[in-house]
Amino acid sequence: MPRFDSHAHFDQHETYDSGSGPPPWKPQIRTNHKAMKFKLELSKKTVEEKLTLGTQHINASTAEPAATFFPAASRVPLNAAMQAIQDDLQTAADEVASAEVVWKQKIQARDVKVAEWDQALTARAAYYEAAMPNNLEALSSVGLPLRAAPAPVGDLPAPTNLRGTPRDIAGQVDLRCTTVKGAGSYEWECKLHTDAGVWEQVKISLGASIRVTSLTSLTLYAFRVRAIGSAGPGAWSDEVVVRAP
């Protein structure tokens, strides 16, 4: 079967004396990546690195000895085309850099306006609250969100793990219990450790620990505590008995 450079076959019923004939042959550049000696790694390079590499290559390839090794007329792409591609990339990169400068300036200008807006709206909200501090109807009419009123916690449980520790100072005992969630304060009481003892308030504290003083040395005392929340006092804890030092 005869074959010409165009790779057209006579048995394909081509008529060469009529029509346009087979398409013209175009050279195909085949690149064997495994055999390539150059380590380009273009996918890992930034645009700036590619521009630097391009400039380095163009300068070196147009000078000796590269000009002798690789004649300009046979290069793919030609020197003029390679330089044009390099220039186009440089122009595009410069345009992006200019746009980024403008974009950053606009972001900074916007942030200034955001800060001014925040300050103005905060001042307006403060004005409304100062003018009508407890008028929810008035405050809700200005189109700004209001904080929800805190929901009552409800009855508080009895504090747990109440313990008393005698101090090295006569007549003083430290009391401590587990913190109760929702408690605003704690009420502490004590009495002589007898069946006839009467409970007396020792202190109301904000925290879950206190120091009791002015006790009678070597006397047994019973202590108890309860938490107080928005709904009132909770249940009393189990009592703890401590001998005053």
The percent range for helix content is: 25-40%
CATH fold title of the domain at 163-243: Immunoglobulin-like
Range of strand content: 15-25%
Radius of gyration from the alpha-carbon trace, in angstroms: 45 Å
CATH superfamily of the domain at 163-243: Immunoglobulins
Distance between the termini: 121 Å
Unreliable runs: none
Tally of separate helices:
4
Written as H for each helix and E for each strand, in order along the chain, the element string is HHHHEEEEEEEE
Pairing-aware structural class of the strands and helices?
Answer: alpha+beta
Mean pLDDT: 86
Characterize the main sheet: 5 strands, antiparallel
CATH class of the domain at 163-243: Mainly Beta
CATH architecture of the domain at 163-243: Sandwich
β-strand number? 8
Shape: elongated
Provide the fold topology.
Layout: H1 47-61, H2 66-69, H3 79-131, H4 136-139, E1 163-166, E2 173-176, E3 185-192, E4 200-205, E5 209-212, E6 220-229, E7 232-233, E8 240-243
Antiparallel strand pairs: 1-2, 2-5, 3-4, 3-6, 6-7, 6-8
Helix pairs in contact: 1-3
Q: What labels would you give this structure?
A:
single chain; 245 residues; alpha+beta; Immunoglobulin-like; five-stranded antiparallel beta sheet; three-stranded antiparallel beta sheet; 4 helices; 17% strand
